[in-house]
Amino acid sequence: MLQLLHTLHILTLSKSLRHGASHLLQVLLRAHASGLRPTQTLFNIVLASCEHAGSWLTAIALLEEMRVSRMAGLISFNTCMAACAAAAQWRKALDLLAEVQSLYQPDCATMGSSMTALAKGQQWHRAWELLQGFFSQGLQPNQVVVNACISAAEAGYQWPWALELLFFSKKELRPDIITYNTAVSACEKSSEWQRAFLLLRELQDRCLQPDSTSYGAAVLAAVSARPMQWTAAFSLLEEMMGRRITPQLATFTQLLMECELRGLAERERSLLLALPEALEASVSAVTETSASATREDVSQLVLHVAAQKSLVSGDLDRCTEFLRRLDRAGLWNPLAEALWLRAKGNDSVKNRAEGRARAPPEGLRAGRAKELRLCRHVFASASMDAKSVCEAMEDFGHRLSQQGLWLKLAAGAKGDLLVSALSRAPAGPVLEIGSYCGYSAIRLALSGRGVVTLETDPIHAVIARNMVMMAGLDHRVDVRIGHSKDVLPRLGKFEGDQKFAFVFMDQKGSRFHEDLRLLADRDLLCDGAVVVADNVLKPGAPIFLYLLAQAATRGDSATEIVELQEFAMPAEDWMSVSTLHRPRGLLTLAPREAPAELWELHAASERIRTQAMGQGVTFKEWSLFNEDARLSS
């Protein structure tokens, strides 16, 4: 009976994953230590849970326990390899593959897991060699394996190999929508837009239904082409909307960026107004109540932005129409009132939908729920000034912390350091990379300087614009949508001729060194510019710090690393503050010369960053990561 109860407990935990894979392992090992004999099947179920939870280290530990107990089989190895693949641990996956080859006859699951690991690790050449090795052993890949190989080709910008694999699939197997989507994406990565378009038509000729991924990759291929195929990109967008296929958020990011850069206000507005549906479509398995709450909240935010953009462009009729839509929907709030007064003077509007019941904030369970709840809190508790908005955002961050959740604000000690560093910068505008919800942009704009802030997530950008408007600083803060690698090469000097005097980097740490070199290459930084980078310990930016250290030895810059407490989280972090005496001197530094151990730490930082964006990282896991990072730095 006790054996059965343990079995049921493990099965229940594995389905919910609520307690995490490590908790599952503890339950399993306690049963084993108590003299109970969990079956190989139960061990494999927990291994599979490790894969879904991204807990590859737990999977390795469990596989070792199974080895000792002589319970490990081919399925166990394959599942553990899949867990390593999910975490992009390609070296460990290959170690397991070598062990499998010495003990068993590899099957398609073995091949698929190893190929997926190499694809996620961007090891296309190893994937090619491994596939040839499988062929030489008489192993025939299935479609899943071929799809993983095409993903590896995509990651390595090897579109010819991707098309070769597609040809093999058409001849020997039966390509599916994943096959074509990955091949289209491989062409997009290499700016082969015409081939991407041909594949999009070919998959339809084979009676496959294109989805948002198919169209999205083709649209991005057109946008990334040189010269840019702008008309073709929007033609595809109209086609997919006509098929009632909602574009993915990544597609919106690229198109909104182009609209902003090209001054296409009407297209930009239409894309903004479609964002609520796009966010809803991007989240699976949400309840109807959750979907409704999410759609309503995002609709309110984009209507605020659309009204403000119309107001700035002088189109008062469009501005008031967007505001009337808010009124009719019962979404009137102080920000809508402020925009109305800016458009109509003292002619205030009577809120006809006053008292309409809204879905409770607890209903926000879909994507960006935490950030949308932040907006509700600010709208309900803050007045229309910067100090009040910042205090409301900080208050919400502390409330989330009590629930074990984290709101990524550069507040508390970090905010104080940011303002202090800004005061030491020469006169000139500010560039922020990574707006998130707009908190730091507001703090920086309070200095009286103009601020340009970049955000790759269109929902976060819309939220940031709302917070900036609530703070009354939209005349000083320019929130731009787009990835830094795409925007920075096309970013002109501020208001025509001013170079940036201060830069705050709050994007992915793996981008810090690349973006800094882009700024130097475009000559966008003035001599003596101050650069502050957040999270250089957690999750980390080892290559960036290496370059700054090299620049300091040559006298091109001076850098200070400041240890401080993360805002609303019991974890330590570092911020770097650098003064660039000769910004263009950074161009002679070579990131690839960084020691191998720093590149390994760089990869570890990327893994935990990916985990944080997925199933999340607990406060304890962050603390453990920080300890390891400190020892490695």
UniProtKB/TrEMBL annotation:
Name this polypeptide is given: catechol O-methyltransferase
Biological processes, Gene Ontology terms: catecholamine metabolic process; methylation
Organism listed in the record: Symbiodinium necroappetens
Pfam families reported in the protein's UniProt record: Methyltransf_3, PPR
Gene name, Swiss-Prot/TrEMBL: COMT
Family named by the database record: Belongs to the class I-like SAM-binding methyltransferase superfamily. Cation-dependent O-methyltransferase family.
Record's keyword annotation contains Zinc-finger: no
Enzyme Commission designation: 2.1.1.6
InterPro entries with a match to the protein in the record: PPR_rpt (IPR002885), SAM-dependent_MTases_sf (IPR029063), SAM_O-MeTrfase (IPR002935), TPR-like_helical_dom_sf (IPR011990)
Annotated PPR repeat ranges: 176-210
